[in-house]
Amino acid sequence: MSSSSKIALRVAIVGSGFAGIGMAIRLRRMGVASLTVYEAAPEIGGTWRDNAYPGAACDIPSHLYSFSFAPNPSWSRTFASQREILDYLRRCAREHGIESLIRCNARVTAARFDDDARVWRLDVSTPQAATSASRPNESNETGLAGETVEADIVIMASGPLSRPAMPGITGIERFRGALFHSARWDHDYVLEGKTVAVIGTGASAVQFIPHLQRRVTRLLVFQRTPPWIMPRPDRPIGERAQRVFRALPLAQRFARWSLYWQHEARALAFVVNPKWMRAPMRFASSYLARRVGDPELRAKLTPDYVLGCKRVLLSSDYYPALTQPNVDVITAPIREIVEDGIVTEDGRRRHVDAIVCATGFEVADAGAPFPIIGAHGADLDARWRSEGPQAYLGASIAGFPNLFMMIGPNTGLGHNSMIYMIESHIAYIASCLRLLCRRGARTMQVREDVEHAFNEWLRQAFQKTVWASGCRSWYLSERGRNAALWPGFTFTFRRLTRRVRPGDYVFEK
Ligand code: N01
Fold this sequence. Notes:
This protein is an alpha/beta fold. The protein has 14 helices and 21 strands. The structure holds 3-acetylpyridine adenine dinucleotide.
């Protein structure tokens, strides 16, 4: 992948999770002249830095949930923990020489395209303590210093799941106890001896509830919709297997290849024929029956929608935790939160010391993460809030020259590793930049009709998928549009993004 030819572009990458780090590694190898990764937080890591709740781990096997160009023979478990994944990502940044290109504590607050100069201007704010006195536009009032930087190319790698969604429950602001979101875990809060409420039973909650249950006095789990749960075949990867992977990289590549196809085969039921979900549903129901003996609790935990319509969750300790005597699963809807507890629609008031909101992230109807103004004043936030988020191949948006999204609209997965999608985007955006330089053009932007036709194709493709089977999920907007997921096989996405089709874009010198 190395190249000696310089690419005379100034590239700004926003975000340093898997997407931003992977993209920076590729662009550095390509010889991009000027490359900066802006990271709002004090350290890199994206979702794997933010989601540090007890028990946080990946639900995709580690040998698949890692970069293909940076295999890690030393994964200690089949499903790595948050800490191990974050360490892996830091190691990738260090070993591929991009650490010095990352500016932490540098939050991009706005991006504007200058139609005359044909460049992007990014407003970047940094905590005042981290800035030098000579920085331009310094503001003493806010405690932040601001500067404006120029870039030819902006790559948005800020992640689709980076903005925690707190539930809009009446009275939540009145609560006097501890209140935090699962992605902003309060590690200083002492759980021992407390009555703790968890709102939500999604992917994050099923991972931390078993850990909470062992530490708190009482655990109240407020469940709106029961998830489908499958056991998680997590086990340590012994020293011997790690040695084999170290000595025989081909063996590790084969393990990854075989994991990829095991996961990809699941797409058949997700996107080709949801009727094929019947067998996994029978398996999950019998797993629930084996783990939960109490018929009343089992009834509460039995989903009434097709498996896969919401994310299928993997956990071998969630059901056992819910059967413990210090746990209540409450299905009565929450009416309001009061100063010291939670009141449900049946009129019951329960005292709690702390509330953990495992209520997911702002996605389906979300606009841009910060103001992004493209050519001729096009406002991405306004457009996405009125029409719903959309892009071409999740990467390019008409009216926004030289702006690329990573893991933008319609690139999420319900069945396989997101790193595969991220690597597809890395190749696609790299190919766009090479094409731009080869043509001697100043800017490129996707044609409006191409973006429109692609989104029409997506709309049609969703109709036969499991996500159109009628459940409510964060994948769907208020208007029922799915702007979150890719409605096909991941190898189809890889094929479409393998190289850029010049006819899809308008180039300007
Ligand atoms: O969020 P979720 P999450 N009142 O949206 C409930 C990824 N992830 O943070 O189902 C009461 O899954 C909501 O109820 P309902 C993964 O892509 C990956 O857990 O809408 N309840 C639901 O139970 C995942 O999909 C890993 O009826 C309210 C829960 O809150 C995504 O992150 C690990 C409510 C939200 O569940 C999000 O996961 C963890 C309200 N007002 C997460 N609002 C990996 O291992 C919401 N809920 C890779």
